[in-house]
Write a structure and sequence with these properties.
The complex is a heterodimer of chains A (402) and B (241).
Chain A: H1 2-16, H2 18-54, E1 60-65, H3 84-90, E2 99-114, E3 117-126, H4 129-133, E4 138-141, H5 146-150, E5 155-158, H6 160-167, E6 176-179, E7 182-190, E8 195-196, E9 199-200, E10 204-208, H7 209-217, E11 224-229, H8 235-250, E12 259-263, H9 264-307, H10 309-317, H11 322-351, H12 365-391, H13 395-400
Parallel strand pairs in A: 3-10, 5-7
Antiparallel strand pairs in A: 1-11, 1-12, 2-3, 2-6, 2-11, 4-7, 5-10, 6-7, 8-9
Helix pairs in contact in A: 1-11, 2-9, 2-11, 2-12, 9-11, 9-12, 11-12
Chain B: E1 5-14, E2 21-31, E3 36-40, H1 47-54, E4 62-67, E5 70-71, H2 77-87, E6 88-91, H3 103-114, H4 118-131, H5 147-160, E7 165-169, H6 177-192, E8 197-200, H7 204-207, E9 212-217, E10 220-226, H8 227-239
Parallel strand pairs in B: 3-8, 3-9, 6-7, 7-8
Antiparallel strand pairs in B: 1-2, 1-4, 4-5, 9-10
Helix pairs in contact in B: 3-4, 3-5, 4-5, 5-6
Chain lengths: 402, 241
């Protein structure tokens, strides 16, 4: 009852000074809209980067050779290469239960031609498991098979960029491309993956490992071994199994390893962490404007208290307690900031449809809740000084106020 | 039954050192239940200060004050609010209604502070407004009412509180003669109904309605006499050969 009456008299004061009240609300509105929108943009950026990383496979490990002696000390006098035998060893599901697939990769840069057209790209000689491990899906044609690897057939799947460069609008399936002077038959075209950072994931050709060895790179070491974990959750266990098996085969330990593992999930974590900090920072900057809006509320409430000194005196004379006066002005401040927050929320929803640099803002529910809680807190905090001042007025002096 | 107002040696001092002003200087005074008392005095006589003390709006520097049996000197701010709310109905010179609130809401306000339920305070407020002849003006805001009507709303507000003491400070100071008569009639009716009234005034017309007139001079009681005595006195003086 008292609460309702306090709310009503606060509301009346807000209505009676519409322009002043709306300017005050504007401060809070801008603050709330800024917090929600900027956090939404941060989240949008984070989502877009995460999505493009996830399209490369989150449960992906890449094993690559590294020089154990790079720091100058000879910790491993006879470093070994990564070999197909290593890849076969990793495929042992008894020893590596968390590994779902393995694909050895030999890669080389090569000039490919088709008729008049010519394009320089890189060719990956690998196993058919490469398709699943790297989320490489064919848009058309057929995948090369284990039989193609065993027979070293010269068949290729073209990345969409390569297909575009060499064939334009033509259908590449069944056509010949000549790479490094050797003819290959196009049996598949990969779906477009897009680029992650400066790296174009569609600028690649996939071919059976043996065919690439025969015609282009010879029987030397592998460039990488791609390893797929059974699930993103088990990726660290898979990584441990790779270490165990390869350390045993290479006779190495942590210090003398002649290879290293790149873990996509770790990259995602790191990037997400960095983006989280970035988003928090944006939110913090926006929160400053909320603070400024709060000071606006204090200011206007002080005016309101001064203007209504006489009214406060009357209320106290007829028996209003401190608590009631306090409540009335706190509610007035809180209503001001809540309405401002609601308007800011609407503004932020509107702004979330704007795309900047291909980033689609994504409103974070927590930021909405936080913005509201903060605005109520701002109403209470910044309203408490003027409200306290009103409540402490001595009725006899307040009544004398003209 | 205790007196409604019981002042014993009340003193109020303003300022300090050489600049001290004794606005009220050792006033001892009783107002019994059912009395209609006028407090008179020139400006600066201390009557406003005394009114503030009686109204529990201000604390005395020394002396004791019992309002309806309650010692006021010991009370803090909130307790004083409560005392005012329960025992005193104020009527001010400048009406002191709350702007932008209907007459009804103004009358209900002290009852709400008292915690009276919505329906009970509404019916009490309507009754009080009807008794001051404003039953048809309940939803008007103060700025839509004449001065006389505003003061009648203020009387209704005081009436609805059923106070131990109705305290009026120059209640007719801002009114024309017709409204003055209306308001004074109202006060007299309240008195006739058993209400205790103290009215601070400098107008003889107002004091004439009271039973008893207390005259202040320089913070002290200069005279305290029944109204009929004053009338008789003036008649005597006029009839003196």
């Amino acid at each position: 009852m008292i609460l309702w009456e306090s709310f009503r008299s606060g509301w009346q004061a807000i209505i009676a000074n519409r322009l002043r009240s709306s300017l005050t609300m504007l401060g809070i509105m801008i603050g709330v809209a800024a917090v929600i929108t900027l956090v939404a943009f941060g989240q949008g950026a984070s989502n877009s980067i995460s999505t493009s990383i996830q399209s490369l496979g989150t449960n992906l490990l890449t094993v690559f050779p590294s020089d154990p002696n790079r720091d100058g000390d000879i910790v491993n006098p006879a470093p070994r290469d990564l070999t197909v035998a290593d890849a076969i060893a990793l495929s042992d599901s008894a020893r590596a239960p968390d590994i779902a697939g393995v694909a050895p990769v030999k890669t080389t840069s090569v000039n490919c031609t088709h008729g008049e057209r010519s394009y320089r790209t890189s060719i990956n000689g690998t196993w058919p498991s490469y398709y699943t491990i790297n989320n490489s899906v064919l848009a058309q044609g057929t995948y090369f098979q284990n039989a193609d690897v065993l027979d070293a057939r010269r068949v290729v799947s073209l990345g969409s960029t390569v297909a575009e460069e060499l064939f334009g609008d033509q259908d590449p399936i069944g056509q010949q491309v000549v790479c490094g002077g050797v003819p290959y038959t196009v049996t598949g075209v990969l779906e477009t993956k897009g680029s992650s950072g400066p790296f174009n994931n569609d600028d690649v050709i996939l071919a059976p490992l043996t065919a690439v060895e025969n015609s282009l790179v010879g029987y030397g070491p592998l460039n990488t071994i791609s390893v797929q974990g059974v699930s993103p959750e088990r990726i660290n266990a898979a990584q441990a199994q790779v270490f165990t098996i390869l350390d045993e085969r290479h006779g190495t330990d942590e210090a003398s390893r002649d290879y290293d593992i790149f873990n996509q999930a770790n990259l995602l974590d790191t990037i997400n962490q960095a983006l989280g900090i970035f988003t928090a920072l944006l939110g913090a900057v926006a929160a400053i404007s909320l603070l400024v809006g709060g000071i606006g509320i204090t200011n206007i409430m002080l005016v309101s208290v001064t203007e209504r000194t006489r009214e406060i005196g009357i209320r106290k004379a007829i028996g209003a307690s401190r608590r009631f006066i306090l409540l009335q002005f706190l509610l007035e401040a809180t209503v001001l900031s809540l309405i401002g927050a609601a308007a800011g929320l609407l503004l932020a929803f509107g702004a979330s449809f704007i795309e900047i640099a291909d980033i689609r803002p994504s409103i974070v529910p927590a930021s909405v809740v936080a913005a509201f809680v903060i605005s109520v807190a701002i109403g209470l905090f910044f309203g408490s000084f003027p409200a306290n001042r009103a409540a402490s007025l001595r009725p006899i002096e307040a009544l004398r106020h003209e | 039954m205790p007196a409604v107002v019981e002042l014993v040696d009340i003193t109020k001092v303003y300022g300090s050192g050489e600049n001290t002003v004794r606005a009220v200087d050792g006033v001892t005074l009783r107002i019994e239940r059912g009395e209609f008392v006028a407090v008179m005095g020139a400006s600066g006589s201390g009557k406003s200060t005394l009114m503030n003390i009686i109204g529990a709006l201000d604390a005395a520097t020394s002396g004791t004050y019992r309002l309806d049996g309650v010692d006021i000197g010991e009370l803090d701010d909130d307790a004083l609010s409560l005392v005012r709310n329960r025992r005193i109905g104020f009527i001010f010179q400048s009406f002191n209604l709350i702007p932008r609130m209907s007459a009804l809401a103004n009358v209900e306000l002290p009852l709400m502070y008292r915690g009276v339920s919505r329906s009970a305070r509404r019916s009490k407020a309507l009754q009080a407004l009807a008794s001051v002849g404003l039953g048809d003006r309940t939803h008007h805001q103060p700025n839509q009412l004449s001065g006389g009507q505003q003061q009648r709303v203020a009387v209704a507000r005081a009436l609805a509180m059923e106070p131990a003491l109705m305290l009026a400070d120059e209640p007719t100071g801002n009114l024309d003669s017709r409204s003055t008569a209306d308001v004074l009639d109202l006060l007299q009716r309240v008195h006739a109904g058993g209400g205790t009234i103290a009215v601070i005034t400098h107008e003889e017309e107002v004091a004439a309605r009271a039973q008893r007139v207390i005259t202040l001079r320089d913070g002290r009681i200069a005279a305290d006499e029944p109204t009929f005595g004053r009338r008789a006195g003036s008649v005597d003086w006029g009839a003196r050969p």
